[in-house]
Amino acid sequence: MQRDSGKVAVILKKGVHRNALRLQLLFKYDAPTLALVRKISGATWSQSLRCWHLPFNDDNIRKVKNVFGNTVIFKLDSSLNDSKIVVKNLLRKKHILTATQINLVKKYEKYLFGLRLSDSTVSTYTSFIMDFVSYYADKPVADLCHRDVELFIEDVVVARKLSISTHRQIVSAIKHFIRLEPDCTINELTLIRPHKSRYLPTVLSSEEVIDLLRFTRNLKHRAILALIYSTGMRISEVLALKLAEIDIDRRQVLVKNSKGRKDRNIILAQSFLPLMHNYFQSYNPKVYFAEGNEGLPYSAESVRQFLRRSCKAAGITKTVTPHTLRHSYATHLLENGTDIRYIQELLGHSKPETTMIYTHVSKKDLLRIESPLDLAVKGMRETDKENKKLLLSRNLNR
């Protein structure tokens, strides 16, 4: 990855990331080259791969070449011409896709992009279909039936104890596959997604949140965690947040192109402004609110790592993720009397039912309910003079 005649060399390579084929862009850091990479639709930075990547297909190869034009020297890795590629599998550790299967998966991926699904959804669904077609490597698509889907679920999803959420995503991926491949005899209407699990979110108390921030010694880390809790933003939204989208005078943050391709405005906490100002003065970010090395967006895994360290330092034993701070934000708003319709808008939820889950973890109304034990003890104190100071912690034997 060296300069040739003053131009940066960019290596195009085929690889696998999160069980999906990816086109990797390898080049030595160069600000103009990086600026062009950021213009490529669908290109994302991988902290583990240490490179930019996007879904692997011929269209994206042409897209990359068109964006760069003659400003760089392209070097094509031999992996681009491989007729077979090794990827991870849900059932086995590795499997080999034939050229026919690769073409089938590429057609499916292109179909999903045509539906304007998000990059993450396309990547997830495509990886599931890779596993599905590989599981029936010796069976033509036209011969696949409903029982084949059931066997795949039984032998892969259930056998490996994958989550209900993953099970639902696999069924959704196969439903799209059926629409693209009408020759198969799988009946879309007979494919049933299992009901969602209704788990209550983990919520920190206000005191635990303050302790968490106090024990986060690094100023940048503290600013990131404080922003998540004070605005209820998703971790992906915080990492994509640009300085140009922060209006300090109006104390507003514009969250652009969030989940569901929606924009929304969020209010900055007054108490957060001094921390943010101190952070800006100390770190001087250029483009993004949270910048890593070489001005690149901070990685979500880095946030999760320092959050775990801060929880340990603060003595918090709950399982805490960045999303826990979002749950805590919503729950505390509800407990402080904020109308749930406003909370829905601030969180960017499409349906009020999604926001209603916080009514189940809010303690404001629950604490108004008196336990039958409290009522019994209270009744004895009122009717029996000898039990005015009745305490259950004492020995009640006479």
What would the keywords be for this entry?
hpI Integrase, Chain A, three-stranded antiparallel sheet, DNA polymerase, domain 1, single chain, 398 residues, 16 helices, alpha+beta, Translation Initiation Factor Eif1
Rg, nearest Å = 27 Å
Considering DSSP H and I runs of 4 or more, what fraction of the residues is helical?
A: 40-55%
Question: Alpha-carbon distance between the termini?
Answer: 87 Å
User: So, CATH architecture of the largest domain?
Assistant: Orthogonal Bundle
Order of helices and strands: EEHEEHEEEHHHHHHHEEEHHHHHHH
* Total DSSP E strands: 10
Q: Uncertain runs with pLDDT below 50, 5 residues or more?
A: 86-93
Class by helix and strand content? Answer: alpha+beta
Q: How much strand content do the residues show?
A: 5-15%
Largest sheet: 5 strands, mixed
Total helical elements? 16
Q: Strand order, biggest sheet?
A: 3-4-2-1-5
Overall pLDDT metric: 82
